[in-house]
Amino acid sequence: xLEGLEPLALRPIPIAAPLHLVQKLAAxxxxxxxxxxxxxxxxxxxxxxxxxLFLQPVDAGKTIMRGLLTPAPVDSVAALxxxxxxxxxxxxxxxxxxxxxDPPTAINVKFAPVAKGLARMPDIDNAGPKVELRAKxxxxxxxxxxxMAFRLEALSGQFPTFQPGAHIDVNLPNGMSRQYSLTNGPxxxxxxxxxxxxxxxxxxxxxCLHDDVQEGDVLAISAPHNNFPLRRDxxxxxxxxxxxxxxxxxxxxxxxxxQELPFELHIFAQSKDDLAFPNILHNLGASTISHTGxxxxxxxxxxxxxxxxxxxxxxVYICGPGAMLEATRELATKAAWPDEAVHFEYFKNTHEIxxxxxxxxxxxxxxxxxxxxxxxxxxxxxxxxxxxxxxxCEQGACGTxxxxxxxxxxxxxxxxxxxxxxxxxxxxxxxVSRSKSNRLVLDM
Length: 444
Ligand code: FES
Hints:
By secondary structure, this protein is an alpha+beta fold.
């Protein structure tokens, strides 16, 4: 950096290529004259300015390239555009070259206990969940048919605090990342407890936790995020859980009980053996009502009864399988519950998502306009252009990628937004939703 001169930070560009290839090709690229280099940075003379490129390896096949231009040019927007285009072209060239490299040696994915400090911790990235904590599996035990609980403890000190309804992203030994709700009560930050149901259609998430992860292993996890927050100003709170959907509601029920706020927890399961965390349910006392072995119609009848007689300042929280959630939301609407009193969290988005439209997005705060082609999501296009865009589930269920729409009509394909939020067209879930209008202006 030139002393006393303000630099301009260029947009970071993620490149799907190993560090050594990025180093080699970035040095050859006609940005300017190479004046210095070390293992992770290059310095080039670029006209009257100095351009420093910092290369940050994320893993064996991915590198982030960041740039600093010193001094910052007078027209910084034009410079940002120019360098964004140049670095994007460089990325494409490097990624093409990466496809010609020998494939990496096959990795044996069978998980072995990981020593303290060695759980994979991806560097800060502009894509995907931020995994930033290490946690030891202090206890793994069965809490219902096909449901295992995991007590995760911090390697030192305490975990970050959280609010009821929060979840963490767990980086699994097989390379996948999955979200699990915390079941903890208020003030429990010396450990997190999650419940994981073995999913017969599992793509490797629940199976890996059930079969491979053992007590003593170390996992990389994110700090808690909360897209399903609990309001404390309700005159009465109704919690409705289907199966493993009990997990975030346990945290809510423990909090409401500790604060002596009125609540009812209704849990629906196939049988008594499917009721997860029975000890906690027992300790919650008479406010907890279990319903087992009901047909779908009988389940709806019970829920209709629970939701009858809405009075202002009641709130209902629902978590469970998609069909049960949809039915419960409909019953709430029929019983005159306003949208803002009905809170829900889906496990996943089971709707078929259409990615076949094309449109443009304009980013109001950075004067950038980008094309979203068929087959790519808004999130992918943002990241392709080096723009930070957090996400978690990437299927329209968790709300982490929520963005504000200033202009245009979103084509909502998520299960996160409420009916009122959809109709207002002021929010969009960027990992799945698209645009009905040719152009969307986003507040970013
Ligand atoms: Fe979960 Fe988009 S990342 S809704």
